[in-house]
Amino acid sequence: MIPIVTPAEMRAIDAAALEPVEVLIERAGAATAFAALHLLGSAYGKRVLVVAGKGNNGNDGRAAARRLTARGVRVVVVAPGDTVPAGPAADLVIDAAYGTGFSGAWTPPPNAGVPVLAVDIPSGVDGLTGDADPGGVLEATATVTFAALKPGLVLLPGRALCGTVRVAPIGLDCSRARAWQVEGTDVAAWVPPRALESHKWRNACWVVAGSPSMPGASHLCVEAALRAGCGYVRLSSPGLDRSVGAPTEAVYQPLRAAGWADALATDAGRFASLVIGPGLGRSPEGDREIARAVAATALPLVVDGDALSALGTRAGDLLRLRSGGTVLTPHDGEFERLAGHRPGSDRFAAARDLAATCRAVVLLKGPTTVVADPDGRVGVSLAGDARLATAGSGDVLAGIIGALLAQGLDPWHAALAGAELHGRAGRRGPQRGLVAGDLVGLLTEVWAHLDLPAGWQRPPWSGLA
């Protein structure tokens, strides 16, 4: 996993460094110059404009300027707000104006389509939240950041303004990071192989989902659980004797409309995980049964969709009574029903706070998926994109996480791995026209290619080990 640290954490890491700050600046300058040369293609005859501020971000830019000059690049260094000298247009702009220490506003120089390399983070992007005034940011073609990612590089709108990101190691110790970006190799390492003596009940999951008006949600969830590694999936839709169109491989078990939580509790012994909520619908009676079922079962549990709304602000009181692990999967609206307020711009803090309140893992959906556990650990997946914004996509994600819980992953790893698998499946689909059912079929391809990067975060020129 790639560490992610806040600007405040980065300052503490810098302060604890064994090497003098001058050494770190030279290393950062070398990494910046290397990235600049890659973007330029060659040094001969090229012109670079470096916008260098007063702080260490500016010092990094000036160190890069010296190295580029030594390679024959024609470099002009200006301070933020200075008039750019007249002459031929630059071939590259290096933004070393402010970095993560930025506050207030600034007016970037016009770049007229010239590529931009940002140093650490595009100046004008909040390093903690990703918030930015698009008019006050030079949208970067690429960003070279040091030692670790910053939240502003992975959260929108900052994520959309930083281009391709390289994490350059410069000798700083980030081992105490509390947040990370997951990669495919992590998922491959977390999911255990099937034992030779395995049988279908080793990885069995019970899905309580679906209703007369929304049977498809349960079908997507079940099929995703099967494709994500379950050997046996039972489907129950309370009050329905059968679920027409359910996957052939699913085993349907009717549950009566009233009192179904009791039947669930008494018959769950052979299962390794439970998913509850996709397409269940809402009613006062149904909400009460959901709350009873969640409190009564000791199985590792995914609470999704209508079950999140049924728990509402009572979720913390109910979930703290559970002995088994819990994963909550809210989008922003469901988060508000659980927490009583919207997540806000600091999505790491929002997910952490709700996880601590509920003593559960919280997977906060969005362009960047944020997964927090009650102890404050945060993971993010950047694999997904706008293709996942389609009806039923969340039902597929719930099924994947349920399958990973059934295979023995703890709730935090299951939620984080599930988000990465889900996002990678979306990336393998068409740019337009992808539907949730396509994701299920694409999962088998994802499993076969987990060692490949999912997106922008590791370019060919990355120095990341």
Model description:
- By secondary structure, the chain is an alpha/beta fold.
- It has two domains: 2-176, Rossmann fold, CATH 3.40.50.10260; 184-448, UDP-N-acetylmuramoyl-L-alanine:D-glutamate ligase (3-Layer(aba) Sandwich).
- It has 16 helices and 17 strands.
- The chain has helices spanning 7-15, 21-40, 56-70, 151-154, 158-161, 184-190, 215-227, 260-266, 284-296, 306-311, 315-319, 332-339, 347-358, 393-406, 411-427, 436-448; strands at 2-4, 47-52, 74-78, 92-96, 116-119, 142-146, 164-168, 179-181, 204-208, 232-236, 251-252, 273-276, 301-303, 326-328, 361-364, 369-372, 378-381.
- Strands 1-8-17-16-15-14-13-12-9-10-11 form an eleven-stranded mixed sheet. Strands 3-2-4-5-6-7 form a six-stranded parallel sheet, covered by helices on one side.
- Helix 6 (184-190) crosses helix 15 and helix 15 (411-427) crosses helix 16 (436-448).
In short:
The protein is of the alpha/beta class and 465 residues long. The chain has 16 helices and 17 strands. The chain has helices at 7-15, 21-40, 56-70, 151-154, 158-161, 184-190, 215-227, 260-266, 284-296, 306-311, 315-319, 332-339, 347-358, 393-406, 411-427, 436-448; strands spanning 2-4, 47-52, 74-78, 92-96, 116-119, 142-146, 164-168, 179-181, 204-208, 232-236, 251-252, 273-276, 301-303, 326-328, 361-364, 369-372, 378-381.
